[in-house]
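Is this the right way to post structure tokens for a design question? Let me know if I should format differently. Anyway, here goes:
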């Protein structure tokens, strides 16, 4: 082809050859519109140059757009015409072994590369996942099906590996907590990075907005369907190829100044051309018998490595990291593809319906994978009616390709000529209108035949307003929403969603049994006794009577392990439980394994069996840098409950001892106490002696918590619940700890060193000292009576009560005392103090000791009379006990002496006023005369030097 450059009217380059007339026409248009055609001419003629360059390449470049029916049709036609022997496909090169398993699946599915343990990437990126969805209405599937079904054809994937995806495009941050959660089908791909062939969309927001506004459409998918898909669905191959390269070049040249993204795109192009040349050099294949399938954006590439005849040095491909990648197939769906790649809802379903209709209209036989061991044919049924012809031809050897035809200008005719408008298909539109009314009535809408007529006429009207000869599915959707939905939606689905269902719905793929990893197949085999079809995408109820059918015990164990490992929606127990030392005899389960294949498949990346995966996860949890002693104890319990492995439990328990000794805070003390008690009770009931790690844990915990106790009492960051858990550990496990060699003096010293500041911790310390015998019960009662009798401490009594309630775990004998304290508060405090005090008491108990309040309720029920009549004659037991004790003769108090008693005796009016202010009596002991300030010069000097204090007291009393 002649690609010599000549000089155009504006001084810019104009190429010769097939596109010389088009270049000249574009230059004249640029000059007429701008007067200074250099900038615009560079873009317009550059587009033509890109098309010319791609068509001149010896290796045939097939430009595609992902999930494009026009691309799929053109690919099917071209493959039958050319019969290439080698197909280079833009797809991650390390995913090639997965393609052979597509015949065992029902499309759409996604190829996945997964890495749970990473090496060479930041740890917070884990796990890494890359997916490449495959649908039947796509050019890549046609190429894959042709290569796998035709003997002698080699399929070579040439795009960067999954490892390079993350090397070149760092992982995007996860959605924040306020982000809207995707629906069940849209979440099939999770947070995986998507890889597509032909991501053809404007990267310049202003350009996209301009196209949508002038095209009178709402979103990009509708614009693409109207102005690209429909015109190209019936176009010949040469026209299709030139138009797609032109669009790719246009979007490439009109892009924002995003140097990072452009660098990644160009590196991908260098990577692919390097791989192509390496393969041709290694195999000696004839480029005339090969085809390169890539996105239209990459077909218009201008990198120096472009083409087989490039003199540029090969691209230096960076080595992969040490990350170990695992590969498999996961189910996908139309909505998952739309959500991941930012397509309009329903666009992939409409594309599938368009492809099926085009296959029937053009009589093109698409390529399809057949021969799956599980009975699947590798498709979603979109073109099932037209896919039966030519099966024998697909399996024949590829003939020699015909001689290359000279390139002719098809762009000029396509750009200047009127679009080929399809006539109105009244029968199809009528069927749509009748069907949408039927669906609307089934979903609660008051629709009738009049609505069907209205939808029919409105669809034609909207198509005319948008310069369309026939209504598209998008016009039909708008007309149905306008005529049927009106203002309200009576059910779960609106009219737009019903239109999507009617036009094909959200098809969900499925990975066949033979394409599943070993773990997933093992799950299906082990659950076979349940008699359920686990491939169904419906919730199935499993009933297990373990007493009548003991052979279902392994199924029950497996279900509990899957419940632990899988999302909640996959396995849900309705009846029954499995806890340490407890086992149900009847169980009921809701199984939704068919719609959660992805979760089970990704389990297969971690091990061969469910037990192996569970064991690895437990080990990984206890060796995590953020692991705590509570985490390790939880892992020990899970190992005993799910695996019944004493060996693993001992290993994890030894790690729990190490973590406990290394902790410097008491944040997890409540959970540690709860779990170690449960484990000790289990081992005491199942064995003659405690495991060695349990003994080490108690001994280490006793010494460790004794060391941390004084600091925890003084630390504001440690709440009363955590300190109470420490004390409960020390007090309740004291006998075991002492038998293991611990010293009780450690605890007594720690308690004596405690200096709490808060009221709750003070009460907790008093309770602990009482339990240890360091504080007599009578002295504790006297202190509490003093709290109730002092107006300054009454507001803080709720905190004291919460501390006492927290102490009930370590000192249950204090329960009657706490009931006594509350009873005295209700009996003695006046209403003016008690009523504001009650809400605070309730809130404090609810926040700090909610689980221990029932102990008080039961004790109060035993203490107080059962009926109201007996309450009047009832005497509190603490009052009866005090009355029964003999009164002790009080020793006469020695007369006070000193300057202060003398001052009070010299001025009794002031003391009487203060006593009346505080609600006390005015009788007080007189002191001998001569005790006033006159006889004490030091006191007189103090009052004279600081008169403000005396004046303040005088004003308060007055």
């Amino acid at each position: 082809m002649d690609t010599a450059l000549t000089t155009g009217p504006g001084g810019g380059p104009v190429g010769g050859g097939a596109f010389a007339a088009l270049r000249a026409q574009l230059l004249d248009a640029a000059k007429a519109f701008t007067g200074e055609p250099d900038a615009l001419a560079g873009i317009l003629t550059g587009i033509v140059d890109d098309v010319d360059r791609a068509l001149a390449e010896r290796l045939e470049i097939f430009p595609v757009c992902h999930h494009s029916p026009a691309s799929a049709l053109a690919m099917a036609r071209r493959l039958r015409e050319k019969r290439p022997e080698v197909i280079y496909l833009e797809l991650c090169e390390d995913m090639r072994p997965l393609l052979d398993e597509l015949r065992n699946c029902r499309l759409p599915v996604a190829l996945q590369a997964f890495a749970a343990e990473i090496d060479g990437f930041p740890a917070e990126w884990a796990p890494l996942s890359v997916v490449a969805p495959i649908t039947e209405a796509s050019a890549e599937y046609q190429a894959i099906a042709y290569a796998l079904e035709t003997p002698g054809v080699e399929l070579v994937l040439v795009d960067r590996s999954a490892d390079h995806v993350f090397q070149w495009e760092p992982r995007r941050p996860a959605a924040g907590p306020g982000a809207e959660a995707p629906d069940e089908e849209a979440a099939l791909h999770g947070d995986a990075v998507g890889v597509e062939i032909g991501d053809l969309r404007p990267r310049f927001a202003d350009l996209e907005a301009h196209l949508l506004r002038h095209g009178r459409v709402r979103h990009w998918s509708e614009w693409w369907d109207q102005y690209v898909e429909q015109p190209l669905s019936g176009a010949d191959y040469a026209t299709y190829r030139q138009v797609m390269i032109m669009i790719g070049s246009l979007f490439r040249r009109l892009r924002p100044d995003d140097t990072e993204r452009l660098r990644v795109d160009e590196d991908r192009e260098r990577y692919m051309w390097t791989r192509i040349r390496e393969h041709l050099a290694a195999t000696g294949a004839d480029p005339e018998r090969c085809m390169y399938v890539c996105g239209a954006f990459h077909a218009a590439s201008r990198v120096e490595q472009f083409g087989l005849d490039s003199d540029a040095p090969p691209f230096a491909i960076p080595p992969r990291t040490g990350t170990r990648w695992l590969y498999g197939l996961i189910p996908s769906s139309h909505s998952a593809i739309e959500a991941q790649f930012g397509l309009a809802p329903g666009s992939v379903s409409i594309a599938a319906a368009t492809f099926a209709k085009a296959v029937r209209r053009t009589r093109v036989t698409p390529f399809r994978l057949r021969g799956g061991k599980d009975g699947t044919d590798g498709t979603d049924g979109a073109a099932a009616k037209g896919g039966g012809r030519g099966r024998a031809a697909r399996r024949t050897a590829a003939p020699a390709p015909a001689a290359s035809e000279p390139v002719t200008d098809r762009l000029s005719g396509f750009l200047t000529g009127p679009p080929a408008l399809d006539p109105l298909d009244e029968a199809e539109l009528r069927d749509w209108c009748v069907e949408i009314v039927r669906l609307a009535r089934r979903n609660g809408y008051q629709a009738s035949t009049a609505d069907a007529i209205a939808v029919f006429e409105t669809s034609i009207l909207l198509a005319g307003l948008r310069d369309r000869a026939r209504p598209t599915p998008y016009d039909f959707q708008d007309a149905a929403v306008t005529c049927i939905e009106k203002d309200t939606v009576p059910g779960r689905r609106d009219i737009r969603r019903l239109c999507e269902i009617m036009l094909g719905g959200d098809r969900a793929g499925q990975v066949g049994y033979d394409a599943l990893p070993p773990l997933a197949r093992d799950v299906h085999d082990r659950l076979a006794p349940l008699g359920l079809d686990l491939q169904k995408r419906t919730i199935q109820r499993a009933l297990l009577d373990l007493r009548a059918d003991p052979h279902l015990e392994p199924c029950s164990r497996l279900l509990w392990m899957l419940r632990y490992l899988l999302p909640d929606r996959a396995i849900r127990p309705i009846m029954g439980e499995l806890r340490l030392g407890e086992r149900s005899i009847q169980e009921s389960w809701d199984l939704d394994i068919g719609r959660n294949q992805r979760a089970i498949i990704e389990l297969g990346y971690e091990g061969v069996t469910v037990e192996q995966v569970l064991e690895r996860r437990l080990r990984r949890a206890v060796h995590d840098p953020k692991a705590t002693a509570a985490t390790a104890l939880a892992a020990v319990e899970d190992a005993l409950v799910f695996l019944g492995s004493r060996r693993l439990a001992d290993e994890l328990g030894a790690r729990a001892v190490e973590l406990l000794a290394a902790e410097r805070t008491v944040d997890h003390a409540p959970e540690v106490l709860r779990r170690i008690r449960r484990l000790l009770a289990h081992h005491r009931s199942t064995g003659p002696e405690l495991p060695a790690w349990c003994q080490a844990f108690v001994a280490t915990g006793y010494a460790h918590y004794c060391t941390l106790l004084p600091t925890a009492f003084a630390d504001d960051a440690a709440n009363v619940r955590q300190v109470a858990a420490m004390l409960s550990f020390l007090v309740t496990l004291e006998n075991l700890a002492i038998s293991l060699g611990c010293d009780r003096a450690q605890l007594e010293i720690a308690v004596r060193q405690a200096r709490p500041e808060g009221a709750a911790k003070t009460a907790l310390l008093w309770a602990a000292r009482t339990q240890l015998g360091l504080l007599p019960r009578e002295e504790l009662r006297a202190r509490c009576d003093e709290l109730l009798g002092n107006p300054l401490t009454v507001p803080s009594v709720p905190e004291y009560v919460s501390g006492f309630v927290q102490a009930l775990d370590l000192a249950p004998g204090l329960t009657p005392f706490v009931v006594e304290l509350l009873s005295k508060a209700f009996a003695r405090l006046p209403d003016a103090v008690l009523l504001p005090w009650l809400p605070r008491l309730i809130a404090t108990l609810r926040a700090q000791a909610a689980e221990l309040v029932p102990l008080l309720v039961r004790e109060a029920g035993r203490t107080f009379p059962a009926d109201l009549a007996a309450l009047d004659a009832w005497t509190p037991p603490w009052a009866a006990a005090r009355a029964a004790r003999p009164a002790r003769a009080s020793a006469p108090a020695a007369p006070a002496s000193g300057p202060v008693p003398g001052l009070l005796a010299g001025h009794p009016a002031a003391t009487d006023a203060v006593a009346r202010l505080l609600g006390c009596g005015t009788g007080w002991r007189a002191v001998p005369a001569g005790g006033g300030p006159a006889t004490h010069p030091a006191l007189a000097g103090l009052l004279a030097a600081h008169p403000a204090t005396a004046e303040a007291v005088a004003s308060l009393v007055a």
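Format looks fine. Someone answered above. Worth noting: Residues 1-15, 173-182, 380-398 have pLDDT under 50 and may be disordered. The chain is about 50% helix and 10% strand.
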